[in-house]
Amino acid sequence: MTDPAVGPKPKSRILRPPGLAVFAGLLVLVAIGWWLYADTLVERGFEKTGTALVGALVEIESAHVRPSEGSIRLNGLQVTNPNAPMKNLFEAEEIFGDLMLEPLLEKKVVVERLVVTGVRFNTDRETSGAVENLDPEARTLFQDIDAWANSLQIPELSLQGLGDVVRTEAIHADSLATVRYARGLVHRADSLRTDWESQVRALDPRPRIDSIEAVVQRLENFRLTPLNALQVPQLIQDGRRSLGGVTRLQSDIAALNDAVHAGLSSLSVDGELIADLRAQDVAYARGLLEIPSIDAPTISPALFGGTALSWLKPVLYWAHSAERFLPPGLDPRNRPGPSRARASGTTYDFRQGAEYPAFWLQEADLGMALAGDGAFAGSYTARLVNLTSAPALLGRPVEITLRRADGARGLSGLSLAAVLDHTGAVLRDSVSLHVSGFDLPRVEIDAFGGVLDLGVGENTFMLRREGERIEARMRWVSESVLWEDARPGVQSGEPAITADAPAAPAQPGDLGQSLRDLADAGRAQAALGRIQGEVGSEAWVRDLVRRTIAGMERIELDMGLTGTLADPSLDISSNLGDAVAASLRREVGAEIEAAESRVRAEVNGYIQPVVQDARARVDALTSEVGERVAAQLAEVEELRGRLEAEVERLVGRDGN
Amino acid sequence: MYWIVKLVQSLAKALNSEGTPGQVAAGIAFGACLGLTPLMSLHNLLIAGVILFFRVSVPGSMLGMLIFTPVGFALDPLFDAVGTGLRADTSALLPLWVWLYNTPILALGNPTNTIVVGSVASWLVGAIPIFFLARLGVDRYRRTLYAKYRDARVFKALRASKLYSVYRLFRPRV
């Protein structure tokens, strides 16, 4: 029973205590939801961030978050190569990270230590890792890099037309710059002639000259006598009036004369310009007729341009991405907000005065293995320190080093040293990588109708960036080159070329005939004479390539990017290009020289008459209009002299 | 269809409940925050706590949320502009954003996102007018329409529904 004196406890008009319990229940529900879905959320968040960073699909099999232990474990990481969606840049079996808990409350991830095991590079994917809805910034970056790559002029090498008759019908006079220039001169000369003649007609100096001439003659014929002394003042007045007329006429003719001179000087046929234009026309016509260049500096880019681009474009992408994800300075950075039914908006990161950056990987060890039985095979550990989204806040650069795993012995076939210093306003990156026993790619060479398998060799990569300047260089060296003919049905029936294949001794009829055998064969063939087959035919090209490669014990390929990050220049050199150029020069140098002479003659045939016509028109204009106006000016000047002399004489007689 | 039924139910229960017009209006004003701002945000957990712990009308909150959710979607571009203006163009507020971004727990509420900032700021500005307009509306409704139709079958049916029974647990008491 309730004490009637005390009565029931009055209920609050503002608070609703049961609501607190409901709210607590709501919080419990949120906590249960987090407990149930934290792994999935972390997995999705990791995949989304990774995909945005790489520009291709990043997947993990599972994620396990242990907030109480401050740890996270990721299994089955696959990072797609954005330039080859059916390949993984790398895979990792397990990633284990120790997290700092306090920064997590600030929505910041600080990984004290990360251990990655089972790292493998360049593995095959079962499904494509291309991303349709790419992060807008990554998409723009890819588009910019593709636009840069498309703007590069990579020379083409086609040997198929070598044996053909040079057909100069493709050359049209209208397409030659020299012809256009000369025709322009002729047109301008005709136009100026018409203009000047109309001006001369409008000026019409002859009647005025004749009138002044009459006055001058009257003054000259005047002889002073007592009877005509009174005429002197009138004569002086006439003379002075005529002098005024002469001055105006002289001024008009001089103005026309100046205009004519200026016009004629602009019409002069510039010998140097004509020579430059002719050279351009010859180059154009040469390109039109697909006469291959056999200069060594153009052969290597023609052979390896596509390969170099496919390997160096990712370098540009990663250099840009490093700046994007490791930005310098402490200014607020913006990024797209979280995906949700509502608009995402923009999220700003304020790094100024923060205790922790939004992301900081303090140190990571990546265990990887170099496969094979060679001296370089074995376990390696890459160490990465201070990877952060706010390098300026941390004040320390990202450093990556690589060493042999503890306990492993033997030569190191893999070395890596990288420092990404984004702590200041000027970004300074340097990367140096050397891999021995690297599986070098197969290079398709359309001009030769085959594939150059570079086999296993050395890959050296160097990158240096300072501010907006970049220098990247990749060098491949192989001593086990294999040439494969791309013709259907040739794969096993005809011998291929190997530069050196000690691991696979040559067998009779085997594709992998050793370099020594082939070098001997090449020398034997060389001794027999010229390369077999009709010049430019498939057989001829094949034979040329076989013999060229057979004479090489080692193939080196250098590919480089230099210049600004936005628009670097590409340079490629290879001893194979030099050797091919030398072979071509030896075999078809004379033919190409003859074809080029023919083109030069053909171009000159178009150019010569037009240029001569232009010169003749300009000369005629100079003599007809220019000299005529100049003569009129001289005549007026002579009249003026005579008139001034007579007026002076009369003034002296008159005493005025 | 479900949302329409839900809206009608909320409307009827909020307007006809025993809560004062002020409690219903406060509920609508707080519910507007749930509707105008991104729902899964930390500040909305706080708002939910306020709605539950203080004697504001829960159905009123539901009604406010249901009414203002489509408004929020429609006004997202405006919120983005407001948020961008407050975030990027107002250097005087910079210390506030830096503090919010770097303060534990608060940072989890995504306080530097333009939509969150713009919508919360817009709600803060609009909450008082929403409250007074809602109170005026509820008051007038009860004195006119509700007084006339309180015995109508529709209202009786709603009062008899299970949802109404659950709601009674939280209805405002005077």
For the biggest sheet of chain A, the summary is: 14 strands, mixed
Largest interface summary: A-B, 39 and 41 residues
**SS content category of chain A:** alpha+beta
**Distance between the amino and carboxyl termini of chain B:** 34 Å
Largest sheet descriptor of chain B = none
Considering DSSP H and I runs of 4 or more, what fraction of the residues of chain B is helical? over 70%
Residue-averaged pLDDT of chain B: 83
The separation of the N and C termini of chain A measures: 151 Å
Number of strands of chain A: 21
What kind of oligomer do you see?
heterodimer
Total strands of chain B? 0
User: Judging from the principal axes of the Cα atoms, what is the shape of chain B?
Assistant: elongated
Count up the domains of chain B: 1
Give the amount of beta strand of chain B, in percent. Answer: under 5%
Described by the principal axes of the CA atoms, the overall outline of chain A is: elongated
Helix content class of chain A: 40-55%
Average pLDDT number of chain A? 79
Strand content of chain A: 15-25%
- The whole-angstrom Rg of chain A is 43 Å
Low-pLDDT segments of chain A: 1-7, 489-529
Number of helical runs of chain A? 12
